[in-house]
């Protein structure tokens, strides 16, 4: 019996020592994150948890600054040679974490890899990797399969990060344990389900971080993340709830930084199904919903209402003067004109985790004009399956325009070709909108593109395809000693600019 | 004894195969496309098609099931659809944490609850008994994620005594094991109390007292030893459940255990992880049940003597 007890204690001791994190302050920045990455390969996943980490380890040819302006990263400059060729001039002083020198060959290899990945087909599918030509070590002609106006925006997306051929081939199935990029941080250890330890890369070409070690701790519960900032257990917490952001605003030891992100939430319909194929019904619903009140309620007063079908920091955004703002009398009149003076019964499909509250408020508002709504609160899986296959009447959806360009927001969501599976979950079809979107996609003049997208947004507002609700927000909390922290619309954080005071 | 254990383990194989078949079929025929769920809202048809092909999701039901079974027999539980990590490696990495949390919580719960249960039984209807009964009712009713958050706010935030999250060493264990233990405590306390009440009225207890035995010996040796079987049964069941991970506790305290891993896999429709996880849990549950049966013999000589006297027959009767 005694021996058994001794054995048990030895096992416990081993388990403990292997999982113990030794942390020294001020050499180490600890960040509480809400999601784990799915991969350490930037082409291995498109989720926000992955891009948050790959953004620290890798770099692309270009990137976005915190105002969503395009800025050079591994490229120093670029020029459009013809409609389908862009010449990039590259930095000559960049090394990968494995010591390999970065050259144009890595760029070509990267796009050969992305051509094979399921996670990059919608963002980088326009690149013709075979035709892309290495001119010399620091010059490359990137060739596109077709003219594409927002090409540079797509290259700034985290899935376009440059990888090293030798590292990928040597890593094989275990690449996630030893990812190699050119970024300011190198992976030390990924303790699955718990934390990711990174070290600053001594050979980094840019300004090096002010600390040696970066620890990302995966803390799934938002309130726990917020409390850890208050107790000093972590320096920064990502994605705290609106409720906690409000509470922490009064805490003198904590800074809360909020930013709008590239996402909006909206109420929409299956526009191919009666009664929602009737534009008057959609206009009536738009008029019956006090969207400001919905947004105020679900964001605890912190959120902003969207005034278009996409978020303001996206290229091509225009705030639209709403033709069908809140006006219950007009809503009733429109219902009568549509032939539904007595209203009708319908269903509203929502993702239970994030839209149940909005759905209940909307349900009440629509009861005023005789529309009886049954809420179907599904899990993410079922909700997505329902709207992709057009089984919904009404639904609450969201869209994140990861490329920061209107093409990704509008063509996916409103072009006839993309109905259902492609991204047009409202089953909306309008030849005029299709033509404008096609024209804008291949147009190289950005001013003309912006004008075309403005027109599309006006048509969508007049046709009342969406009732625009809130613009997505991210709230960061950080201890007062943390400086140089910025929230980014694409939800990444440039942690290498952070320092302590 | 050895043959008995081996036999019980072998008997688990058909059960596990049945589990694989049922889980796989439920997942296959339930709505939702794993590739689309992984790729998210903005995925295009082309992307979904590419990923489905890569993961082998386009193959018919029979082919997928056969492939899974084939790999399983080779000891390969497959790789997660979502992060491409080996399912068995991930389970093995997380299991020690879950085992530690489960063991500590059950130990804590059992020690406190058995002592309280005994005192409640021997001082039936006293103030102590009423307080303990009230407390156990509270313990069953309090949602443990709420209790966890309240403890974090009080102990970590207000008093700054213990860390709020993580599982890196003894001081990190205390809040999770209390939170987790409270839920288990109530049940053990109640069963200890009722089981003891039944035993202390027996003639042999009166005999023990009559021969002048010290009260403490009477309670612990004569009464508890006879009352312990239902208590062990319950603790065994609870331990089996605890080994599946405590998803809410793991979420609140950021503990990298099995529970959250498995529950996340269900919402992501990550079939290899769900399969592997359920299979592992079914196996563990079998092992824990076996352990409980062996413990019966340890605590109750009447049962262990049966093994010795007529091995074959008793074993068969027991296995049923």
SSE topology sketch:
The complex is a heterodimer of chains A (501) and B (320).
Chain A (H helix, E strand, L loop, with lengths): L1 H18 L8 E6 L14 H10 L4 E3 L5 E3 L2 E8 L2 E6 L13 H11 L6 H4 L8 E4 L2 E5 L7 H5 L9 H7 L13 E7 L3 E6 L12 E6 L3 H10 L4 E2 L4 H7 L5 E16 L9 H10 L2 H8 L29 H10 L6 E8 H16 L3 E8 L1 H9 L5 E7 L5 H9 L16 H12 L3 H17 L4 E13 L2 E2 L15 E2 L1
Parallel strand pairs in A: 1-10, 1-11, 13-14, 13-15
Antiparallel strand pairs in A: 2-3, 4-5, 5-7, 6-7, 8-9, 9-10, 11-16, 12-15, 12-16, 17-18
Helix pairs in contact in A: 9-11, 10-12, 14-15, 15-16
Chain B lengths: L1 H28 L4 H6 L5 H11 L5 H13 L13 H36 L4 H15 L2 H15 L11 H30 L3 H8 L4 H28 L4 H7 L4 H10 L3 H29 L1 H9 L1 H9 L1
Structure explained in plain terms:
- The complex is a heterodimer of chains A (501) and B (320).
- Chain A is of the alpha+beta class.
- Chain A is 33% helix and 22% strand.
- Chain A has helices spanning 2-19, 48-57, 104-114, 121-124, 151-155, 165-171, 222-231, 242-248, 279-288, 291-298, 328-337, 352-367, 380-388, 406-414, 431-442, 446-462, and strands at 28-33, 62-64, 70-72, 75-82, 85-90, 133-136, 139-143, 185-191, 195-200, 213-218, 236-237, 254-269, 344-351, 371-378, 394-400, 467-479, 482-483, 499-500.
- In chain A, a hairpin with a 3-residue loop joins strand 8 and strand 9 (195-200).
- Chain A is globular, with a radius of gyration of 25 Å.
- The N and C termini of chain A lie far apart (55 Å).
- Mean pLDDT of chain A is 93; it is low at 10-24.
- With 320 residues, chain B is mainly α.
- In chain B, helix 10 (215-242) runs antiparallel to helix 13 (271-299).
- The longest helix of chain B has 36 residues, at 87-122.
- The radius of gyration of chain B is 24 Å and the shape is globular.
- The two termini of chain B are 16 Å apart.
- Residues 314-320 of chain B have low confidence and may be disordered.
- Classes of the chains: A alpha+beta (501), B mainly alpha (320).
- The interface between A and B is large, with 55 and 55 residues.
């Amino acid at each position: 019996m005694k021996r058994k007890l001794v054995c048990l204690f030895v096992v416990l001791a081993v388990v403990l020592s292997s999982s113990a994190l030794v942390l020294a302050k001020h050499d180490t920045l600890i960040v509480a994150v809400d999601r784990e990455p799915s991969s350490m390969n930037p082409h291995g996943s498109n989720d926000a948890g992955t891009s948050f980490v790959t953004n620290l380890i890798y770099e692309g040819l270009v990137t976005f600054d915190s105002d969503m302006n395009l800025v050079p990263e591994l490229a120093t400059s670029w020029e459009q040679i013809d409609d389908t060729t862009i010449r990039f001039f590259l930095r000559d002083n960049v090394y990968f974490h494995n010591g390999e020198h970065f050259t144009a060959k890595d760029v070509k290899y990267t796009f050969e890899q992305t051509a094979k990945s399921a996670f990059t087909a919608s963002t980088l599918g326009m690149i013709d990797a075979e035709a892309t030509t290495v001119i010399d070590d620091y010059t490359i002609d990137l060739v596109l399969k077709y003219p594409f106006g927002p090409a540079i925006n797509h290259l700034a997306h985290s899935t376009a990060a440059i990888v090293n051929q030798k590292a990928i081939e040597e890593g094989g199935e275990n690449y996630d344990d030893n990812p190699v990029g050119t970024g300011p941080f190198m992976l030390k250890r990924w303790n699955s389900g718990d934390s990711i330890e990174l070290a600053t890369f001594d050979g980094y070409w840019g300004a090096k971080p002010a600390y040696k070690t970066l620890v990302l701790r995966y803390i799934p519960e938002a309130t726990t993340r917020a409390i850890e900032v208050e107790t000093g257990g972590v320096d920064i917490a990502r994605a705290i709830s609106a409720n906690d952001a409000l509470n922490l605003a009064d805490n003198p030891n904590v800074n809360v930084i909020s930013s709008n992100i590239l996402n909006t939430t909206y109420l929409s319909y299956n526009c191919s199904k009666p009664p929602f194929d009737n534009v008057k019904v959609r206009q009536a619903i738009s008029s019956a919903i006090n969207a400001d009140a919905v947004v105020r309620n679900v964001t605890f007063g912190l959120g902003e209402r969207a005034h278009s079908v996409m978020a303001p920091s996206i290229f091509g955004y225009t705030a639209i003067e709403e033709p069908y703002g809140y006006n219950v009398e007009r809503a009733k009149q429109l219902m009568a004109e549509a032939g539904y003076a007595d209203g009708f019964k319908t269903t509203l499909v929502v993702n239970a985790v994030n839209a149940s509250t909005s759905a209940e408020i909307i349900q009440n508002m629509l009861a005023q004009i005789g529309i009886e709504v049954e809420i179907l609160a599904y899990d993410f899986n079922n909700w997505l399956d329902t709207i992709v296959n057009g089984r919904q009447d009404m639904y609450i959806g969201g869209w994140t325009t990861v490329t920061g360009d209107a093409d990704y927001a509008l063509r996916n969501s409103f072009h006839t070709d993309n109905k259902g599976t492609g991204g047009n979950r409202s089953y909306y079809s309008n030849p005029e909108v299709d033509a404008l979107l096609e024209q804008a996609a291949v147009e190289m003049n950005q001013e003309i593109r912006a004008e075309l997208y403005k027109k599309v947004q006006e048509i969508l507002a007049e046709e009342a395809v969406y009732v625009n609700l809130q613009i997505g927000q991210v709230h960061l909390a950080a201890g007062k000693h943390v400086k140089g922290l910025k929230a980014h619309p694409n939800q990444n954080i440039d942690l290498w600019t952070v320092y302590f005071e | 004894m050895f043959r008995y254990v081996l036999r019980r383990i072998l008997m688990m194989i058909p059960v596990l195969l049945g589990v694989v078949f049922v889980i796989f079929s439920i997942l296959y025929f339930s709505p939702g496309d794993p590739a689309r769920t992984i790729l998210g809202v903005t995925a295009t048809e082309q992307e979904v098609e590419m990923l489905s092909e890569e993961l082998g999701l386009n193959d018919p039901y029979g082919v997928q099931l056969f492939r899974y079974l084939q790999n399983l027999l080779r000891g390969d539980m497959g790789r997660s659809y979502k992060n491409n990590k080996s399912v068995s490696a991930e389970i093995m990495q997380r299991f020690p944490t879950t085992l530690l949390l489960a063991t500590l919580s059950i130990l804590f719960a059992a020690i406190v609850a058995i002592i309280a249960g005994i005192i409640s039984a021997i001082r039936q209807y006293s103030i102590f008994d009423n307080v303990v009964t009230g407390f156990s009712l509270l313990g069953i009713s309090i949602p443990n994620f709420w209790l966890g958050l309240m403890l974090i706010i009080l102990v970590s935030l207000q008093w700054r005594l213990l860390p709020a999250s993580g599982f890196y060493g003894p001081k990190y264990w205390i809040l999770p094991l209390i939170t987790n233990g409270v839920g288990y405590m109530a049940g053990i306390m109640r069963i200890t109390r009722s089981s003891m009440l039944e035993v202390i009225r027996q003639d042999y207890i009166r005999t023990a007292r009559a021969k002048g035995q010290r009260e403490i010996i009477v309670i612990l040796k004569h009464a508890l030893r006879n009352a312990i079987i239902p208590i062990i049964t319950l603790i065994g069941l609870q331990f089996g459940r605890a080994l599946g991970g405590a998803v809410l506790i793991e979420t609140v305290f950021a503990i990298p255990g099995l529970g959250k891993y498995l529950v996340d896999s269900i919402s992501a429709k990550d079939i290899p992880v769900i399969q592997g996880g359920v299979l592992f849990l079914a196996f563990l549950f079998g092992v824990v049940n076996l352990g409980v049966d062996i413990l019966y013999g340890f605590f109750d000589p009447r049962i262990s003597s049966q093994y010795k006297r007529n091995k074959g027959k008793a074993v068969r009767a027991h296995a049923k």
